[in-house]
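FIELD: query
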Amino acid sequence: MRGSRSAKLKSPEPTRRARRLALYIADAKLLAELPTTTRRQRALVLDAYPFDDQLLRLSRLYRASRHMYLRSGGRHTPSLYSTSRSLSRNDLFANDLEYAPARAEVMWFKDHFHELAPADAEAEAEALIRFNDISLFHEQNHRLIWNLLPPAPSDKAHLCRYLNFAESLAITLDVALADEAGELSTPLQRMNLLYRRESENRWRERSRAEYRRYLVSVTYATYCMLELVAADDLDKALDYVFPGQRRINRDAVACSLTLHEPFAMGTNPRWQARHWESAAAQLARLHAKSTARPLHLPADPLDVGAELRHVKHILARFGL
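FIELD: result
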């Protein structure tokens, strides 16, 4: 009887939404206290994008991406922009990049959430997460990668491999940004400003050459995932393409396996099936003045070899 009475007096466990709210407020307060950009960097800041000022100060890679995008003629447009709308459109090639202008709302909410009823505060946090769930850094890099790669092939099979190769490069840059952000990558990911968290390995702390080998291996392992190579075969594939670096390969495979399976198995191939013809036309216009030969990736990922020079070139352009 006493045990039953004691159990009734215990505070109820917080719901998932309540835990999410608590994390959201803690993350927002932590990120808001980070140093902001220097006066020299102010021209890069998007005032309406949450914690853009702090990210530009925190990360050299984040600054490099913004510099490159603006120099390429890229523009940013504030807009209510959800993942659902993003995935239904073929706008990966537009040089006018939309983003959710949620900064003012986030900053107000972190200071005033306690004035709302608990259920209303939880709903507000869910809404802010939902409508600010596209990483501007990732989308910027997609636009840059099209310009840094050779022209795209026009037939469906080769084009889809090309798109997977480009996606793998964008994901690798996400990995590098998370590694640079370190422990802050966790709250930044929960805020959807980053898509990844810091790697558990410590390759970034080693030499630049070793870290680049790791990132090239991450790109290849991710490409294999998008090409639907079985997870059990990834170790063998990387050891075949990159002999003599078994430890790097294992860590690269572990990193690639954190890619969401629904994206690799569902979202990505569905988007390609729907939009490949339009993508081919837009890439053809983008590369119309190029004299380089189109990049044809082999049907078997194990035959990828010389094509990896493009990965090294792009990583170098980002200072990696």
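FIELD: remark
Residues 16-317 form one domain.
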